[in-house]
């Protein structure tokens, strides 16, 4: 496993609370294809597909495709009047009709600059295998960041990484859950099986809604939603300069799945976040609490390999990692009701050539 040359202290000295969030946007800026796309699409139609990655998206590999007969999609354009904030969302559902209260639900939070249309390889797969997958779009840190004057992009990214947006993201998830569970389809879902999931900035959001507690202006901020009973953290950046991870994450009392890769690294001058940060989060999560947690580290994959982009982390490695990621997530979720995690052991054996490390910590 590749080691970073800087110490934890020196890595963190130039960033503020949740600047790990800014990490994700930096990863985009520092990739040459992404920068070119951002400039080329600066004045593009705001309703176009996620502009920063559009030109690098090849046809979806055959192995990643999900039979469209197995799932349905619905789009929502909710508005939270209390916060005067739009909350767009996309819901994937199993195509087959289910009985009342039978469909478990995953609520998903995208990385910075993403949208409700991202991570479709997960949402479609979850739905095809019996889950609802609700993908929430965070308007203060979504794909609109990439439009406008390219020279003002750093300022827009900086605004998206502020603590106010980080907290608003959690409220977006809570509001989306209120809407979907209180709507016409609310009776469809199993309220005892609701998981939160997210990638990068979305993983920060997931940690907060699952029980992470940070301090802001001298007071603890607790945004735990009791409806959440599991969490999937993909490429989770830490909460920089907010204290010890063990204290921040001690309150996460639900089962967690942590997914990363050996080259899950973001680096700019004065800032470096690598896979050891993800390991620190895994170790700190729920310390002293008897909740299962699982870690999977893929070989070689980059930070953006877990997005819908199909050419990051190696053209041929990429689809296999995505397939393995969604299979592991499903095995994790399926094992929760009976605490039977044998399917994850079988997963680790069948994907041994892709996985650098697999670890389970069970109560």
Task: Please tell me about this protein's structure.
It contains twelve helices and 13 strands. Residues 1-17 and 19-58 have low confidence and may be disordered. The two termini are 27 Å apart. The chain is of the alpha/beta class and 363 residues long. The protein is globular, with a radius of gyration of 19 Å.
What layout of secondary structure does this protein have?
Layout: H1 8-12, H2 20-29, H3 32-40, H4 51-54, E1 71-80, E2 85-94, E3 103-109, H5 120-128, E4 132-136, H6 153-160, H7 163-182, E5 189-199, H8 201-209, E6 213-216, E7 219-222, E8 230-234, H9 245-248, E9 256-263, E10 266-268, E11 271-273, H10 275-284, E12 293-302, H11 317-335, H12 342-350, E13 355-361
Helix pairs in contact: 5-11, 7-8, 11-12
List descriptors.
363 residues, alpha/beta, Rossmann fold, nine-stranded mixed sheet, two-stranded antiparallel ribbon, 12 helices, 13 strands, 24% strand, globular, disordered N terminus
């Amino acid at each position: 496993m590749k080691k970073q040359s800087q110490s934890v202290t020196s890595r963190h000295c130039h960033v503020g609370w949740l600047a790990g969030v800014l990490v994700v946007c930096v990863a985009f800026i520092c990739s040459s294809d992404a920068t070119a796309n951002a400039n080329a699409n600066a004045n593009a139609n705001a309703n176009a597909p996620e502009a920063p990655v559009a030109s690098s998206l090849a046809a979806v590999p055959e192995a990643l495709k999900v039979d469209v007969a197995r799932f349905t999609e619905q789009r929502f354009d909710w508005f939270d009047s209390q916060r005067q904030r739009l909350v767009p969302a996309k819901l994937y559902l199993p195509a087959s009709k289910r009985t009342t209260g039978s469909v478990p639900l995953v609520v998903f939070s995208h990385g910075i600059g993403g949208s409700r249309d991202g991570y479709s390889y997960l949402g479609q797969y979850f739905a095809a295998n019996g889950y609802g997958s609700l993908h929430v779009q965070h308007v203060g840190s979504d794909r609109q960041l990439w439009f406008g004057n390219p020279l003002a992009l750093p300022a827009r990214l900086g605004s998206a990484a502020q603590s106010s947006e980080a907290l608003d993201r959690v409220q977006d998830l809570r509001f989306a859950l209120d809407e979907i569970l209180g709507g016409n389809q609310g009776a469809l879902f199993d309220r005892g099986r609701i998981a939160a999931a997210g990638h990068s900035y979305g993983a920060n959001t997931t940690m907060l809604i699952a029980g992470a507690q940070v301090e802001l202006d001298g007071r603890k901020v607790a945004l735990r939603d009791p409806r959440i009973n599991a969490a999937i953290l993909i490429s989770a950046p830490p909460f920089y300069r907010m204290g010890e991870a063990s204290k921040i994450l001690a309150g996460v009392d639900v089962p967690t799945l942590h997914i990363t890769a050996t080259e899950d690294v973001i680096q700019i001058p004065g800032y470096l976040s690598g896979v050891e940060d993800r390991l620190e989060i895994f170790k700190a999560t729920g310390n002293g609490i008897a909740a299962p947690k699982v870690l999977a580290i893929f070989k070689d994959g980059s930070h953006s390999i877990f997005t819908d982009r199909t050419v990051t982390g190696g053209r041929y490695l990429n689809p296999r990692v995505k397939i393995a990621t969604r299979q592991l997530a499903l095995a994790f979720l399926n094992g929760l009701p009976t605490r039977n995690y044998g399917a994850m052991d079988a997963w680790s054996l069948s994907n041994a050539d892709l996985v650098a490390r697999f670890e389970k910590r069970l109560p």
